[in-house]
C-alpha cells in the first residue's frame, strides 16, 4: 500500500500534472493540499475517469485539502480541528480532512505557514499545532493504523534545509515551531522520511523565486507521521523529485510511504 502526500498549489492550474503523476505512479491513496478550490469547483469527475474516488474540504482561493483513493471511496471521519483563522470573525480555514481507506486512518493536513514572525499568523500556527497534537493523541490511543501526512510547514532539523542561515528568521524554522513538531513525535509517532534518511538532505519544496529549483535550494516540510501500528509495516519512502522539474509544476513534490500488508 502506497500513501502519498502532494501540495499541489492550485488543483485547477496543476490538474494535467496531477493526473500525470497519478497515472504514472498509481498511489493507493493521495493526500492533497492547497487545492485552492471551493467545494463545488473540485474536479472530482477528472479523477473518477482514471479510477480515483475523492473527498475534499475546499475554500475559495486559499488552502483546501483532499483525499483520493484508487478504486474505493474514502470514508470521511472528520474535517477541521475547530481552530479559527487569525483574522477576527474569519472562522475555520480548510486545512484538515480525515478518512478511512482500506483499514487505515488517513489524516491529511495543511498546517499554517506562520509568517510573518512574530505576529498573529505565527500565534495561529502554534495554536493549530496544539489542536493537531490533541487530535493525534486521540488517534494514537485508538490503536488504529494511522498516518498523519501533508504540508506541516515545519523544517524539523538544520539538515532538512539547504541553508539554515538563509531560513533562520522564517516561521518554518523557529524554535517554537520545531518544538511543537518534536512534541508530536515524542507522543509516539514516527517521521517516516527521517527514519529511512537519518542524515537528512532530502528536500520536498523548492521556491519559485531566485532559481531555487535550478540551484537545489530546497527544504523538507512535507511529512508522513506513522502510528506504531503502521511504523511496523514501513518498507520504503520516496520523494518524486522529477515532477518538480516539469512544466507548470507545483513548488512541492510528492512524498510517499510504502507499507506492507497488515
From TrEMBL:
The active site is at 110, 151 (proton donor/acceptor), 252 (proton acceptor). Probably binds two magnesium or manganese ions per subunit. Keywords: Hydrolase, Magnesium, Manganese, Metal-binding. This is Endonuclease/exonuclease/phosphatase domain-containing protein. It comes from the Bacteria. NCBIfam families: exoDNase_III (TIGR00195), xth (TIGR00633). Belongs to the DNA repair enzymes AP/ExoA family. The record marks 222 as: Important for catalytic activity. PROSITE patterns: AP_NUCLEASE_F1_4. It comes from Erythrobacter litoralis (strain HTCC2594). Residues 4-252 form the Endonuclease/exonuclease/phosphatase domain. Its cofactor is Mg(2+); Mn(2+). The keyword Magnesium applies. The record marks 252 as: Interaction with DNA substrate. Mg(2+) binds at residues 7, 34, 151, 153, 251-252. SUPFAM superfamilies: DNase I-like. The record marks 153 as: Transition state stabilizer. GO terms for molecular function: double-stranded DNA 3'-5' DNA exonuclease activity; metal ion binding.
Amino acid at each position: 500500500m502506497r500513501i502519498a502526500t502532494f501540495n499541489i498549489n492550485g488543483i485547477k492550474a496543476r490538474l494535467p500534472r496531477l493526473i500525470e503523476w497519478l497515472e504514472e505512479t498509481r498511489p493507493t491513496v493521495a493526500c492533497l493540499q492547497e487545492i485552492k478550490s471551493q467545494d463545488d469547483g473540485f474536479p472530482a469527475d477528472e479523477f473518477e475517469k482514471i479510477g480515483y474516488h475523492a473527498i475534499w474540504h475546499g475554500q475559495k482561493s486559499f488552502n483546501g485539502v483532499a483525499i483520493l483513493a484508487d478504486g474505493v471511496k474514502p470514508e470521511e471521519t472528520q474535517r477541521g480541528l475547530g481552530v479559527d483563522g487569525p483574522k477576527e470573525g474569519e472562522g475555520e480555514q480548510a486545512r484538515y480532512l480525515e478518512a478511512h481507506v482500506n483499514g487505515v486512518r488517513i489524516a491529511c493536513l495543511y498546517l499554517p505557514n506562520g509568517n510573518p514572525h512574530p505576529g498573529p499568523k505565527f500565534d495561529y500556527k502554534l495554536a493549530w499545532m496544539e489542536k493537531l497534537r490533541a487530535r493525534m493523541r486521540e488517534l494514537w490511543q485508538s490503536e488504529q493504523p494511522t498516518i498523519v501526512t501533508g504540508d506541516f510547514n515545519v523544517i524539523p532539523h538544520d539538515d532538512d534545509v539547504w541553508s539554515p542561515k538563509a531560513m533562520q528568521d522564517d516561521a518554518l524554522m523557529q524554535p517554537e515551531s520545531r518544538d511543537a513538531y518534536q512534541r508530536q513525535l515524542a507522543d509516539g509517532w514516527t517521521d517516516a522520511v527521517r527514519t529511512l534518511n537519518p542524515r537528512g538532505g532530502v528536500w520536498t519544496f523548492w521556491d519559485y523565486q531566485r532559481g531555487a529549483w535550478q540551484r537545489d535550494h530546497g527544504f523538507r516540510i512535507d511529512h508522513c507521521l506513522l502510528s506504531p501500528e503502521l511504523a511496523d509495516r514501513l518498507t520504503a519512502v520516496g520523494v518524486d523529485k522529477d515532477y518538480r522539474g516539469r512544466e507548470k509544476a507545483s513548488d512541492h513534490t510528492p512524498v510517499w510511504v510504502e507499507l506492507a500488508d497488515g
